[in-house]
Specification:
Layout (H helix, E strand, L loop, with lengths): L23 H26 L4 E11 L3 E10 L6 E8 L5 E9 L5 E7 L6 E8 L10
Antiparallel strand pairs: 1-2, 2-5, 3-4, 3-6
């Protein structure tokens, strides 16, 4: 018959305190995970909230006869030598979009004028967005 015996005990004070498993590796692992996560959050924020490479603002607009409107844009871009495209739109009295047009922005141009045809009487105009990705039917190459 065998009896379970307790592990041998060491004389107290002779060998120092018993050593616990090191938790340093946990601290390093947590630090590495935190660094990766914060880097990913910073990258997503930069991509989604950073400055657009090309943008435009409406300078003037004027209603013309026949449900048309002329719109003048100032274009700002980080590469002026590259052409781009901007989408402009008109709105009717209710605020609904009543006309839309893709406007080719030639290289080195910072001011562009265009005319947009509307399905109803336009009362205002704005820029929907701009891009360097020019559709094939608009490219002038």
């Amino acid at each position: 018959m065998s009896t379970a015996s307790a592990p041998p005990s060491l004389p107290e004070g002779r060998y120092g305190r018993p050593r616990r498993a090191s938790r340093r590796w946990r601290m390093w692992a947590f630090g590495a995970v935190a660094l990766v996560v914060s880097g990913a959050v910073a990258w997503v924020g930069y991509v989604n909230l950073g400055a657009a490479p090309i943008s435009a603002e409406r300078v003037t607009f004027e209603e013309l006869p026949g449900n048309t409107m002329t719109i003048s844009l100032n274009v700002t871009r980080d590469h002026p030598e590259k052409p781009g495209v901007c989408i402009v739109r008109t709105r009717d009295l209710s605020g609904a979009e009543s006309g839309r047009k893709e406007v080719y922005i030639p290289a080195d141009d910072s001011r562009v004028d265009t005319v947009v045809k509307s399905i109803g009487r336009p009362v205002t105009a704005d820029v929907y967005g701009c891009s360097y990705d020019i559709p094939q039917y608009l490219s002038r190459s």
